[in-house]
Amino acid sequence: MHIHILGICGSFMGGLAALARETGHQVTGCDSAVYPPMSDQLRALDIELTEGYSADQLDQAGFAPDMFVVGNVVSRAHQADGSARYELMEAILNRGLPYTSGPQWLAEHVLHGRHVLAVAGTHGKTTTTAMLAWILESAGLRPGFLVGGVPLNFGVSARLGKGGKGGKGNTFVIEADEYDTAFFDKRSKFLHYRPRTAILNNLEFDHADIFDDLAAIERQFHHLVRTVPSEGRVVVNACDESLRRVLAQGCWSEQVLFGSSPLNHSGFTAQGEPSDFKVLKAGRPVARVQWAISGLHNQLNALAAIAAAEHVGVAPELAARALAEFQNVKRRMEVRGVVHVHDHVHGAGSSEGDITVYDDFAHHPTAIHTTLDGLRRQLDGKGETGARILAIFEPRSNTMKLGTMTAQLPWSLERADLAFCHAGGLDWDARAALAPMGARAQVADSLEQLLAQVKAAARPGDHLLCMSNGGFGGIHAKLLQALKS
């Protein structure tokens, strides 16, 4: 079968492309923007890409896909001149060609008949999915997986795994996104996955472009819970009030809680620092995690992954040993480079030292705050208590572009010494939103201005944390080059 994927460079659709190629399908695709790491993965798979959504693709010689798989980036929107923004989709509809959504295709061609372990939540989905897949891999289950990023332990965002029917090797771990499925299917993507094991990591308001309020998202999470069988397991963050409301609407499966809460008597908790902690079940030590990953959020992610892995027969002790070798995911506190600089840049006496540049996917205020807090704790743990953190970010997600959460920005950046915002293309005033931070925050209308601001402020010993859910104009390499000069 030849499938043509519209929106192929998104993290989900790119992973789907890899799975389709692995199953033997001919795969092509198109998108309006191509950036790493997904573009690198697609090129490595020799998948032919077309830039843009022109209907001319349909008239190319020999181009006759059996199915068009449509990503949720595609809409019926029109441009200022009245032409269709996604001309290819209009042509597909007008010619009556077969099409489906990515989640629907995945459910029918990959997930059917497998033990699906789905990881849902506003934050931590990608990292927790990668943790869980690595735990199952270390236990010999050879799971299939689809992650919204590239787990460093695997080097790819998706694979089929062993497959087969029944017994070990029939597991598939998937990042379960609550975003809508497609322009013709407004249900959350995760409702197609039919998990037997579901992690509900946390839940707060996001995706303001498709959800009116938090209650609307909670309803979708409840629909997910409804799809878990009675012999299944729902792994739930005991500290999250929104998730308690979700479960109050009904749950027909085994519930296993994680996290320290008066409500969690028999589930999983942690004792110790995030980098070295005991795993307790019902208050009794069952494992110990010692790893290089920082942050209280990752400690909770680990507990969730351990609880989910237990449901498919992996003992917590074995899961903890696997996590000791977990390498995280690309664009999650990923060090992109270190530059050694001398004092003559700022005339600061005889000082010299390293400036470290990181890349992170954080784009929601809570994720930004959590990421900065994790880096601060990591530096404190290394004895770098006085090291400065420079937060460099762009409000790129649909929610942030709408200005729904501007009031939370100063709070999200409180752990940074300085903050630099790329405000190009925003319809709201980033300078006004960051005004409570005073001189600690600067706003730039272009990438060039942003680079100049950061270069002027950076000094030896600084840690530069770049945060975006897009390519950010290749700012990481440009910063490293600017600092070297």
Question: In a nutshell, what does this entry contain?
Answer:
The protein has 485 residues and is of the alpha/beta class.
If you had to describe this structure to a student in words, what would you say it looks like?
By secondary structure, the chain is α/β, with parallel strands linked by helices. The chain folds into 3 domains: 2-102, NAD(P)-binding Rossmann-like Domain (Rossmann fold, 3-Layer(aba) Sandwich); 113-323, Mur-like, catalytic domain (UDP-N-acetylmuramoyl-L-alanine:D-glutamate ligase); 334-484, Mur ligase, C-terminal domain (Protein-Tyrosine Phosphatase, Chain A, Alpha-Beta Complex). The chain is 31% helix and 24% strand. It has helices at residues 11-22, 38-44, 87-95, 102-111, 125-138, 214-227, 241-248, 296-311, 316-323, 365-381, 398-401, 409-412, 430-433, 447-457, 475-484, and strands at residues 2-6, 26-31, 48-51, 67-70, 99-101, 115-120, 144-146, 158-159, 171-175, 180-182, 185-188, 197-200, 233-237, 254-258, 268-273, 276-281, 284-290, 334-342, 352-360, 389-393, 418-422, 441-444, 463-467. Strands 8-7-9-6-12-13-14 form a 7-stranded mixed β-sheet, with helices on both faces. Strands 18-19-23-20-21-22 form a 6-stranded mixed β-sheet, with helices on both faces. It has a 5-stranded parallel β-sheet with strand order 3-2-1-4-5. Helix 13 (430-433) links the parallel strand 21 (418-422) and strand 22 (441-444).
